[in-house]
What does this fold into?
Amino acid sequence: MAQQHGIIVLFDVENALKERTLAGNTYWFDNMKLFGSAGVGTEKLVTIVPGTYFSDGSQATEQVLNWLPAALGAIPPTVPRNYLAEQERADDRRTLDELASLDAEGGVEEADVKRLQRRVGKRARPGTGRGLTEGKLLDVTGRTTGSAAAYNYPAPVITDITGQAVVEKIMYPAQYGSPDMIYDGWYWAATVDTSRPGVYPYTMHVQLHELVEQGGEMVWRSVDLTCESSLKIISDPKRNGFTGAGLGELPLPAVPAAG
It folds into this structure.
C-alpha cells in the first residue's frame, strides 16, 4: 500500500490580496519532518518522499501526496456545513427580538433601525468565482458583520498543479471527489514516481476571493495567484515503521514456557 503524505498550505489571504502575491504569505506543513522534510512552517518547504524499494532493490510502489489548503485566521473548515446558515438564522432571531423589545418600549426610532441594519450586514452576491453562495458576511469569530474591515474569507481553492515535477512525470496530480465534505467534496492528490531520486519543484495555482462593490452590490471577485514548493525523492529502502528494519514479520515478545 502506498504511503500517504499530507501537505497543508496555510494562506494569509488578507495580506496576499493586498500585495497581489503569495510570496511571503504562505506557510507549508507536511507529515514527513521526521524523515527529513526541510522548511516546515515556511514558504520554502521541501517534502521528503522516501523511495519505496524492496530489499533486493526493486521498486515497490508509488507514494501518494494530498494537499489541503486553509486560510490563516479563518473559521476552520471542520465546522458543520450548515454553520453559516445557522449563524444567519441566529442573527435574524436576535434582530427580531431586539426590534420587538424596542417596539414594546414605545416605538422604533430610525437610528435604531439603521443600527440593526448595520449589524445584519450586507449580503455577498454570487459572482463568477468557484464555490460562492449567497449569504451574510461572518467575521473571524463566526458572527455576522457589516464591517468590511474584519470578515471571514472564503477558503482558498487549488485550481491546478504544474511545474518541473509534473512536466518530467515525477508526479501525476489530479482533483478527486470524496465523501469528505470539509473541502466541498473535492481535493487534490498525486502519485509520485520514486524511481528517480532528486529535487523537483512544482507550482500550485490558487484562487482567492476578495469582497468588492460592483453595481451597488457586494460580490466576491476571484484572484488567481501561484506559489511554489518542492519534492525531494530519496532512495532509502522501504522499512518497517515499528522496527526500522527491512520488510518482514514483526518481532513478538517471548512467551514464558508453561510451568
Remarks:
- The domain at 4-74+154-234 is CATH 2.60.40.3910 (Immunoglobulin-like).
- The chain has two domains: 4-74+154-234, 75-152.
